[in-house]
Every structure is written in structure tokens, then in C-alpha cells.
Amino acid sequence: MERVIGIDLGTTNSCVAIVDSGTPTVIPNRGGYKTTPSMVAITEAGKRLVGHIAKRQAITNAENTVYAAKRLIGRKWNSSQVKNAVLTSSYRIVEGPHGDVRIQLRDKTYSVPEVSAMVLQEMRVIAEDFLGETVSKAVITVPAYFNDNQRQATKDAGQIAGLDVIRIINEPTAASLAYGFGKNLEKLIAVYDLGGGTFDISILEIGAHGVFKVIATAGDTFLGGEDFDARIIDWLVQGFKNQHGIDLRQDRMALQRLKDAAEKAKCELSSVKETEINLPFIISSGRNEALHLQQTISRATLESLCEDLIDRTIDICKQTMLDAKLDKEEVEDVVLVGGMTRMPKVQEAVAGFFDRDPCKGVHPDEVVALGAAIQGAALVDDQHEMILLDVTPHALGIMTFGSLFEELIPQNTTVPTSRTKIFTTSRDNQTAVKILVMQGESQQAEENEMLGEFILTGLRRAPKGQVEIEVTFEINADGIVSVSAKDLETGQQQSIQVTATSGLTKDEIKQMIDSAKEYMVDRRSSEEFEAAKQEAEKLIVEIERLFPQVEVVVAASDFGREAVNKARRILRDAKAAIDSKDATAIKNQIEALARTQRMFKGVVTKTQ
Ligand code: AMP
Fold first, then answer.
1. Nearest-CA residue for atom 20 of ligand 1
2. Are 100 and 218 contained in the same domain?
């Protein structure tokens, strides 16, 4: 049976898991870490770096290192979130050809799905290395709050990475799957997920026979660990300005160092009460004198700097409970997800709100990927009976007269679903009506996400308000939205299937898939080369070390001299193969090198 990997594509870190002989397991990367930074960089030499190696060089190559691409995925250039990211990111965010967002790294611009694809490709390689086989199917998780465009863009990223994304599931749903796996529970739980960039709260009902039903979900795609880091950065920058009159924000490298130090201090403050931030030579005073930043920060300071951020998450929890028409007491367990839930103040706030200690049994960094792997296994194996009942995270509706948003399907409606509403014309003798399909919670249509549009023509001429148009919204089990409009009198009908766009055309995606494939071939062959080179070099060093002793011993016989000359030739050919950077040529020499090394060792041992 084909393996399916589960990938938690996080804002800060990503994680990959698999169900191995019935047990969900997280796959560590080569460094032994179970999570990999969702960072991508291009070096001066044009080399692509992903994960820990990208993170390690982020300070010295800040402009060409992308972090938190998830905040940009599926967003439009003119959105306020993107405008904000343009101002605060150390890498360059530029406008794409379709009003989408692109990232400039050295002399090339990349779409956001392409950057995310690089991270996904890395996760795929981690899994393939571990399993020793190729993997092509994946379940990828997204925040429950992602809109259709963001989901589609994530799917495109998977496709670019050469993965067949068999399902996109919501992170909290995945977390609840991992939480409930094999336990046969019937419980109402809350999943509080505070990650690097996003916040989500979901209330789920785990029912008999593997039914996982989402009751309500809400969140904020621009609220997470990065905001906590930003508060520390602001505090440090202000302190430095007061002390030296210099604004550290002017210097991209200083800013990147601050960012790193702020995150590190924040994490440390989860286990200690006070920590020191020490950044020597952070900037020059302008009088040829280097300035250092040294500051002690306490847990209490961090908590007061971030109090309102934590409060915002609790406000969303409150609202969600109201939407779900549930009492806090009815929630039987609280599952914490995301690295930020390690912060004691966050745990305290959640425990305070739900009036119970959160569940300790799940690992906040791994639970989402594990859930994705469980869902992946269930999709290819009929034996695992599991039903996920999700809800629409956003209201769906149309724009009506006066740019108002008229809701047809409310937020948190279980899918699949369908709703119908009657509208009337707004002008006399109006013969056509444009239907703008939108997703969001604002009453002002333009503040919501536009999903698509179509025109219903051939309406009967009549005074305004007298032509009735029936609009039907339908969402199927895959979350695909279709909308139709019908003139009730003439029966004239128009409909569209709302296909979310990631901002990329089919051709662009195809091109990106090709170049990602090319990269994989290059990468695999360079890995093959490195492995062969290392093996050959080890043998060369060993032979050269033994050479003087062997030469002395065998010098007396013609046969011995011939053997030594042959060894010299083998060494020369092996070195030439290494210089030519040809993995196959090196591999061809390894056998001869190994034979020589064995022979040399034999000679030396005999004479000792
Ligand atoms: P995630 O997106 O779930 O990987 O969460 C990453 C976020 O969690 C980042 O903002 C991290 O800085 C933060 N984080 C990780 N470990 C800790 C910790 N021990 N204390 C506080 N925050 C942490």
C-alpha cells in the first residue's frame, strides 16, 4: 500500500509524520530534529538552503532569507496584511503579475507557493531518506481559518513540490485526530493553537466510531509568536534609541540579529524568570566606534509587553464559545498546540478561561503532523473508519446594493451544505445582474475576500424590486463552492463553480513544477556526489597514511614495486574523478581504492 505522509506546514517550523505499522510517528530530519524551520534562503553562489541551514545563515543573508511565508500565502498584494509584511520583513516582497505577492531573492522573484514548495520538498526528502523509498502522496494541514484562496495556494505549493495532495485538513482537526487516536473517546474538546504566525481555536466533538465533528472554529491569521517577538524587538529598539539616539531598524542585519535574540529570549523565559540579551557590535556609532546591546529581560516584562496579545486569543475563545452556543463547563479537555503554548502565561490564561488544566498528553509541535498522517493512512486504507465533519470557517455570501455583504451561509456551518435566498433588482428595467461571491465576516463587502463573479443576463424588464432572483450557494464535501442565480419568472439561470485561485496560472504552476523537479535531480546528484566523494576521500587518506610503510616493505621485489605503482595510479585516477565532480566516476574508483587499502593494511599488519 502506498505511503502517505502528513505534513504540518507551519509558519515557523514544519513537521512530517507517517503511520508506521499502525503507529503515528514523527520523522526526524538528518540533524535528528523533529521539526524543521520553514525558512528558505538563496546564497550568494545561488545555492538554495532550506530549514536549519537557512536559519543559521539568516543574520548574514537577511535580505535573501524568507521566513513566515505562510503569512503571505494566497493573499493579494493590496491586502493590509501584505502591506504590513512589506514594512516589517527583512526580505523583499514585491507585487506579482496577477495582483499577487512575490518574493525577491537575489536576481529572481518567486511566488509564495513556490517558496512554500521548497519547504514541502524538504519535508518530502526527510521522509524519503527515512523510509528509503519515494513518497508522492501527502495530507497537508492549514489553519482552520484559511480562506479558499489560501487553501488553494497551499495545494499548489504541494503540487509544485511534486506531491499529490490527497487532502488539505484543518490543523485543529488534525490535532484532535492525534489526540483521539485509538482511544475510542466520546468527548467535547477545545484545541487552542498558538503557533508562530497564526492563532486558531476550535471546539470539536469526538464521537463514537471515529466521528470528529467540528462545532465551531475561529482565529486570527495574523496573531502568533512573531508578534510576541516583535514586542520584544520594539522594547529593545526603544531602549537602545533612548540610550544612544540610534534607530536599529535602519540596519537590516541588526534587525535580523534582534529578531533572533528576541525569539531566543522569549523561549528561554518559558523556563527561567530572567534572561540576558547580548548583541555585541550591533551597530556603529558613526564615529568609528562599535556599540553593543546588552539588556536583561524578565518574564514579568515579557508578560506585560504581550498581555494584550494573549487577551486577544482569549477574546476569540469567548466569541467562539458564544457562536457554538456552548458553556465553558461543557468542554471536557483542552489540547494545546503550537510552540507558543509553552509560554506559562499562555497556559495560565487558557487554564483560567476554560477553568481546567490543559491536557498534557500531546506534544504541541508534533500533534498536527501526526493527525495529518493518521488522516493520510485512513484515506488509503479502508480499514480505518474515520469521518471528519468540518465547518466553513468563514461566512459566504454576495455583494448587494450599496457594497453591503449579504450572507447566505453563516460561519461554522457543517459542510456539505446548500442555502438559497431571493434577491430583487435594484434598478428599473434592469436586464442584467452581476453576482459577486465573497467570503468573510464584514458587513462591508470590500473588506471580505472576493471568490468569484458572474453575470445573470436576460432579466425581464420591470420596475426595480419586481424581478426576483434566486441565489443558491452550495459547498460540497471537498469544500468546493458553487453558486447559481435564477430569474424566478423566466427561469433564466447562470452558475459558476467558485475555483479559488492562489494567484498563479496553470502555466506558471507547470513551469514551477518543472524547475522544482530539476532542482531535485540536481540535489539528489549533488548528494550522491558528496557521499561518494566522502567515501573515496576516507580511503585516499588511509592509503596515503600507510604508503611510506608499505613502500619500505615491498621495495625489495619487482612485484611489490609494481603493486605500489598501481596504487599510485589508483590514487591519481580517484583524485581526478573527485575533481571532475562526477559521482559515477568516483564510484567506479571506490572498489579499487578499497582493494588497495585492504592490501596496504595487510602488508603493514604482517610486518608488525
Ligand atoms: P509553531 O508555529 O507551532 O512551530 O510555533 C512556533 C512559535 O512558538 C515560535 O514563535 C516560537 O518562538 C514559539 N516557541 C517555541 N518554543 C517556545 C517556548 N519554549 N516558549 C515560548 N515560545 C516558544
1. 267
2. yes
